Structure formats: structure tokens, C-alpha cells
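Before anything else, study the sequence and C-alpha cells given here and see whether the fold suits the sequence. Record follows:
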Amino acid sequence: MAALAGAQVCGSSGLGKPPSEVPTALVFSGGGAKGAYEAGIAAAFLAGGVPIKLVAGTSAGALNATLIAGGQLDLLEEMWRSITREQVYGLRPSVFFAGFLPGWVTLWVVNSAGSLFDPSPLRDLIEARVDLERVRRSPVRLVIVTADLAARQKRIFDNQSVSVDALMASVAVPGAFPPASVDGALLFDGGLTGRAPVLDALESGVDVERAVVIMSYAEAERGEPPTTIRRAVEAAFEMGMTSQIRRDVELARLRHPGVEMRLLTPSAPLDLRPLEFEPAELARAWEQGKSDGLACLSELGE
């Protein structure tokens, strides 16, 4: 989907340089299937010759950042254009059959299951396709943020410490997916501490002049009326997430005045739920991301 006519995606630059001459950090906020949009933006930036020096992310954004750091751009596009729900997660049998049990027994079984979904298909995909050795040799700095709920603190991984378990932890939304064990600690999605980890990225010591934070919710996007528990929980989570991203971008501006901050949001609502891994919809989100990325580069070059 093309950018809205007359609307700016990320505004003109004050640096006085074309994007191809500005060392840049890309910060991904993830969001399950919405990661296709963010990957499309990254593809546009890389095709435009933007020198990406730093990539950071949580959730699906962590996987995007890892593939970019490792230079696996073909896999990045292939994955987001073709991946299906069955390649990402499955419903645990105990949870499925719990629906046929009496109410209190259902609650007990669901709680005992530890998580609603089984992410082993995604682990298989990462183990088979993601080249972590290329990431370790890459000059592009990687920052992945996860959360240790027991210790009440974040856990950060870089090019040298990233692992399959760290990537699995980055997508482990509490309740939906199980935590991943890393060095004896059970880690979850780092979005709990910072959905778009721009502060962690800029504190990594990499010298960049611009940071582009990608948020996969459009400015004018509205949720469905919160008339059910599911809708209310989803709306609350998304509102907290988008508010957190905007807050962290403003805080980054204050802490790092030498870095030009840009918040890039979709030119139109994606109409894509986080767990909706349908190839046609993912391809559409990818194309919209690429279109918005090209529009952003055009504005920054003015």
C-alpha cells in the first residue's frame, strides 16, 4: 500500500546529508506478524544504501534485527512472504482438550500447561535457517532485549552472546509462549521493559547520527470496542506498548541530543493481528513497509 498522499512518513532531515551518508540505527518493536511490515522498511533502507551500523529489537523485531546483522536479507524476505502459523506455533493439546472439561478443571489445566502455544516450530526454523556465526562476524552491532521476570530486570544480548534460546526468549510473550532458559534463567519477551529498545541501542556505544524507531501501529489506528475480555486485554496491551515507545523516543532525544530521532509509523493501518500468520497478508504488510520505507528515505533526502 502506498503512503498516503500529502502525508509525511518520517519528515525531512535536519542533518543536511543524503540518507546514504548517515550512519543509522534501526530499532524494531516487533509485534508478531506485524514484523513483516518492519522487515519491509529495513529492505527499503538497505536497498537505498543506508549505512546501517546498529540494529535492535524485541519480539519479532529481534529476529528481524538478527537476520539483518547476519546479512541474511534473502531469508528475511522469503520468511515474511511465505511463513505460516504452523511454522511459528501450535496450540498445546492439553489446552485444546481443556475446552471440553468442566469450567474449574479447564482453568486448572490451562494454568498447569504453562503457556497457550507451543513455539517449537519456530525454534526448528531458527535452528535450521538463522546463521548465528555470520552474526558474530558482522560489523553491524546487534542488540536484543529480553526480560527476566524472577529477577525483575532486563537481559541484553549482542552479536557474541545471541543464541537460539535468546531469540526464543525474545518472542516469549508471558502466558502465550513459554520462557526460554538461558544460563539457568527463564527469560521472556523484552517488550515488557521496552517494546522498541532505542535507549538500550544508543547506550551500546555505536556511533550513529540517526536512529529510526519503527512502530507498526498507524497514527490514526483505532482498536475494536473493548466489549470482551480478549478485546480489553489486547487494547490495554497495545495502548501501553505504543505509549511506551513514544515515551522512550522522547527520552532518547533528551539523553542523546547528537542523534537525530525518527519514529516511523505505517501510512495506513496494517489490519493485521500479531498471531495472524497468513502469507498473503504478510506479503501485503511487507510491501506496505517497503513503500513507507522508500517514502521516508525520500523525505530524509529533501
In short: DSSP finds eleven helices and ten strands in the chain. Residues 229-255 form the longest helix (27 residues). Residues 269 and 301 are 25 Å apart (CA to CA).
